[in-house]
Automatic annotation (TrEMBL):
Coiled coil: none annotated. The gene is LOC111452169. It comes from Cucurbita moschata. This is MLP-like protein 34. SMART domains: Bet_v_1. PANTHER family: POLYKETIDE CYCLASE/DEHYDRASE AND LIPID TRANSPORT SUPERFAMILY PROTEIN, POLYKETIDE CYCLASE_DEHYDRASE AND LIPID TRANSPORT SUPERFAMILY PROTEIN. It comes from the Eukaryota. Residues 2-152 form the Bet v I/Major latex protein domain.
């Protein structure tokens, strides 16, 4: 029987947790414009904002060209976190379950914030690697978005 696993990473940013979270909550559709090399398109299929039940379509290139549909599973305003679950797409050929969650919180000691990304997944078979490439990608996006937010 397959096992549900998780990988996570913390990314230090200079922006506040509120500013980073607000971008994902209200302006996430701008990501393909900012990171056009890897994120080719984004659109809402159901709903028109990041709220539970909204369904999004992504075209991207992280480990090769791919598409997916993901629904917003949870939005936690108090903890500045959003959880997404892939419901259709290329990634499900490798993982029978794939959920992504991020949480932003202020780094009280050092200023700025820390963004925690985690992926919960179930491999389609034991030969499939853990999604480290996706974790590395969202970490790079966080750093790039932080730089973008500093000037916008």
């Amino acid at each position: 029987m397959a096992q549900i696993s998780q990988v996570s990473a913390d990314v230090k940013i200079q922006s506040s947790a509120d500013k980073f979270y607000a971008f994902f909550r209200h302006k996430m559709h701008h990501l393909p414009r900012i990171f056009s090399k890897n994120l080719h398109s984004f659109e809402f299929l159901e709903g028109n904002d990041i709220s539970p039940g909204s369904l999004m379509h992504w075209s991207y290139d992280i480990v090769g060209p791919a598409k997916m549909k993901a629904k917003v599973a949870d939005v936690d305003e108090e903890n500045k976190s959003i959880t997404y679950e892939v419901v259709e797409g290329d990634i499900l050929s490798q993982y029978t379950l794939f959920r992504s969650k991020f949480r932003a919180y202020d780094d009280v000691e050092n200023g700025g914030a820390i963004v925690n990304w985690s992926f919960e997944f179930e491999k389609a078979n034991e030969n499939i690697p853990s999604p480290e490439a996706y974790l590395e990608f969202v970490s790079k996006i966080s750093i790039g978005l932080d730089a973008y937010l500093a000037v916008n």
